[in-house]
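User: Here's a chain of 60 residues. Predict its fold as tokens.
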Amino acid sequence: MTERKQPKEKGSKDGPPMAFDPVEAALRQIFDDVASEDVPADFADLVAKLGKNPNEPKAK
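Assistant: Prediction complete.
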């Protein structure tokens, strides 16, 4: 049988994982800011069009 490797702990080989990583905190903040933004109306319209039947006549 093959042996599964244990997942590596967060941090480097030289020391324990950092309690606070400023880069990780900054990336999380950027992600949270972007995730909380509204979806642009143009993009929402395009997504709505994906769900429509392509054989259905277009409304004018």
